[in-house]
Every structure is written in structure tokens, then in C-alpha cells.
């Protein structure tokens, strides 16, 4: 099965593919808490959610692509439960902490292996990660901030529609209140102009600050006066970050962790403390001078990127993040031809846990599949 075939298979065809996958078989053997899921195991619930999707009032107005995204979200939204479920020894209740994050990683790996396009895959992955948020809107201190945040990370319309199907796709007696909460989600998002599109911040700096501040404002309109622009690269080893920079930012000075390892004679498997320290010093020199530059490293985890972004933002830089990800076979082939290839098992391990960047992290996000840009 490849992505082109699966994306045109409809609900029944996608379910027929999924039932043969190991992550689906694991769901069939994973029981849930009867208070929330009287229907039984995770796979039974998943099938019920898929059955509810075409019954949604808005289903007919969705594009084929949007329908496929929702079906795939249904398949993976609880796929992390077999990896996280645990029984409280005192109460006997079943919980699955952080199952949505595990489901996100499972979805990313499975869809990548199918050849699913990068943008489509990440929409599914973010919906999987945040699928539970609408039901708990009333617990948020600032509901308007919640819907604004999700409008940029997942998209409120599809998140709302999936949440309806998820709520209805179970056998639990009292479901009226949770569904009322979902309708509230839609109402708040519509009131703030972010149900069908991202929340309209005053400018990129306003959005950047909103996602960074402990007490953010939706209405602050900061003056944009950046001293320079930092182009932060992100991607697996061998993904083509150097190639992208050469083609798109050829005049920028580059602070590259790979180059600094060579300069210091440090192997990638050795302690990287000295390499990181030197990189920070080089970055500070450029930031103090107000000169735009590129920072080239894998930067695969949000936490890692965050430390560098804190540095750049502290000097008043505008930050653009460029994420490069060709198909995995192309990455592995390119890596083999490098002068200093990274062990293939390391790349595969990184591919199982990386976190592609989002618009919540930067002023501008560029996503590339590694193909040459058009004219």
C-alpha cells in the first residue's frame, strides 16, 4: 500500500489497511476504562469513531483531502494507549497518560513510510496530539487563548469535527455535557475569528510573543524592528540542509555544528559541550554585530530549538525556521554519500522521535521536502 492508493481508498479501504498493522492489533488487545469507554477495547472505539465521521453534518462540505485527514486522525488518536495504559492498583481505573504524544509519533512514522506528503502528515499528527483539548475548554483560565493557540497548531474546524466524532463514537451513558463543551469551542473560536483560519495576530512579532510569554495578549501590536534575521535549519542528518542554504541563502554566514566538530576534531558520538559552547560564541558575535546569519544543526526537538531561539530572540533577531525533510530513503542514500556519514541506526532512531517545528516557535516557518524550489 502506498499513499496515493490509501488516500483514495475511503473509510472502508483505510480501515482494511489499518487492521493489518501492528499498532492496530495492539489497540484490539488494549482495554479501556469502562467509565469513559463502555464499548470495550481501543480498536472498538476507533472503529466507532470512524463510523461517526460520515454522519457529521459538515461531512458533505469537506474536501476529499479533509475527509482523509479526519479518518487518519481517528485511526491514530488513541494508538498510543497500548504503550501508556496502566491500572491504578487501588481504584482499578485505567489511565493512559501522554497517549496522544505517543500516537503522534506512531502516526508520523506510519504515514512517512507510506509516502504521505509532509504537510498532510503533520496536520494529522497535530490533530492526534491535541485531539483531547476541545472537551476541556471550560477548565482553561482563558478559553480565547486556547482556541487561538490551537488555530495555529492544529486548525479549529477539523479539531472540532473530529472531537464530535470522538465523543459520539463510544458507549457511555452521559455524553451531553462533553458535546456541549465542543459546541462552546466552536462558538469561542468563531467569536475570535479563528474557527476556519489561524487567529489574526497584529503581526508576526505579536504571534511570536504570544507563544513565548507567560501572560500573553491576543491584542498586543508590537513594533517590528529586528536587528537581523537568523535562519535556523532543522532536519535529520542527510536531509539536505546545506543544499537548501546554498540554493536559497547563499550569501549568509553559517554557524554549523558539523563544521565546528571538524574544526575542534570532535566526533559526533563524543561529548558535544565544547562544540555547543563555541557555536553560542560564534552566534553571539554575529548577533552583537546585527548581521543576519544561518544556524545549521539538526534541531529536531522543540526543547533543543527553544534554547537557541531564546538566545536569538534575546538579541532582537527575527527568526525563521527552515525544516527540510525528503523521503527517508532519500535521506539514507544522501547520508551514505557524505564524507562523514551518520550511522543509519542513529538516523532511524531520530526519525522515530523528532518533533518538526511549528509556527508557534518562530516568526516564519519554511517547510521543504528537499526538492528544488520552483521559479
Automatic annotation (TrEMBL):
Residues 54-136 form the HD domain. GO terms for molecular function: nucleotide binding. The keyword Lipid biosynthesis does not apply. Keywords: Nucleotide-binding. It holds the Pfam family AAA_33. The keyword Lipid biosynthesis does not apply. InterPro entries: HD/PDEase_dom (IPR003607), HD_domain (IPR006674), P-loop_NTPase (IPR027417), tRNA_CCA-adding_enzyme (IPR050124). This is HD domain protein.
